[in-house]
Structures are given as C-alpha cells and as structure tokens.
Design brief:
Shape: elongated
Order of helices and strands: HEEHHHHH
Strand content: under 5%
Helix content: 55-70%
Strand order of the largest sheet: 1-2
Structural class: mainly alpha
Low-confidence stretches: 161-165
Number of domains: 1
Distance between the termini: 22 Å
Length: 167
C-alpha cells in the first residue's frame, strides 16, 4: 500500500494538509478560495452555456433596464465571493466553533445573495431565476463547506481531540 502518512494533518477534517502551524493564513485561505471559486465559476459557466443553448434569456433587471448577465461575470463572481469569504473567515481563526461560525455565516450570505434574484420584476422569466439560482447553489456547495473545514483546523483542541481518540 505504500508508506504510511504521518503528521498532525493526517487527522485533519480537510483532505489536504493545512500549514505546519495548523492555523491557516492569508495565503492558504486565498489559495483555497481561488481553487474552490474557480471550480464554481467554471461549473457556473457550463450551466450558463447550457441555458444559452436552451435559449433561456439570461436577462435581469439592472439600473439601465433588462440586461443580459455577461458570461465573464458568471465566471469571475464566484472567485471574488470565495476570496472575500475566505479572507473574512480569518477573523474567527483559532476560536472554538470557528468551522460552524464560517459555515453558518457563509450560508446566510449565500441565502441573502438570492434575495435580489427573487425580487426581480415579472419581466425576468422564472427560468432565468432558476438557472441563476442553481449557479448560486453550486458556489455555496463548493466554497462554504471547504472554507469552513480549513478554518476548523485552527480550532483549539482540534488536533489533541484526534490524538486522544486515536492514541
């Protein structure tokens, strides 16, 4: 089976090793956000393409009236949202319950981000709202739980807890 892995990170909730300090920093969180946000953006762009093929008008009400959601916004907004959320999650790094805090605050923000979509005027088709809502859901699914897991590794007693169970 190969060499057995060793190190404090082997019992981590994350599938990859956190930094040696077990307290993720700006660089670690920015990288995690870039990866999760990019995957989310690419999947959202794929969904946008399918909607376009199905002739769903991806038009939403903006200040200047109905406007088509640009493809590059679909690609880049998940990355920007992930980066902001990941860096903001550092505010609770090292606190007890950090993973739960990040998860539920991230979930609340994701739900709040749906409000402008739901509040669109009747000129915006329900099909457009559904497709855009699916993109929001994908971003939430890929970003929030992973960022919460990484921040959770900084919780006090997280690694000692695993040593008692396994040791």
């Amino acid at each position: 089976m190969g060499a057995m892995l060793s190190g404090a990170w082997t019992e981590s909730a994350t599938p990859v090793a956190p930094p040696t300090s077990a307290n993720p920093g700006v660089r670690t969180m920015a990288y995690a956000a870039l990866v999760t946000g990019a995957y989310s953006g690419l999947l959202s762009l794929l969904i946008y393409g399918v909607a376009w093929l199905l002739r769903v008008p991806m038009e939403v009400e903006m200040v200047a009236g109905l406007q088509v959601v640009p493809w590059f916004a679909v690609l880049l907004l998940p990355v920007v949202a992930a980066e902001i959320g990941a860096i903001a999650s550092l505010l609770v790094r090292g606190r007890k319950g950090a993973a739960r805090i990040v998860f539920w605050v991230g979930t609340s923000i994701a739900v709040a981000s749906l409000i402008p979509l739901v509040m669109q005027p009747s000129s915006v088709l329900i099909s457009t709202r559904i497709w855009l809502g699916v993109m929001h859901l994908i971003t939430w699914l890929l970003v929030v739980p992973q960022i919460a897991r990484i921040i959770g590794d900084s919780e006090p007693g997280r690694h000692e807890e695993h040593e008692v169970v396994n040791g």
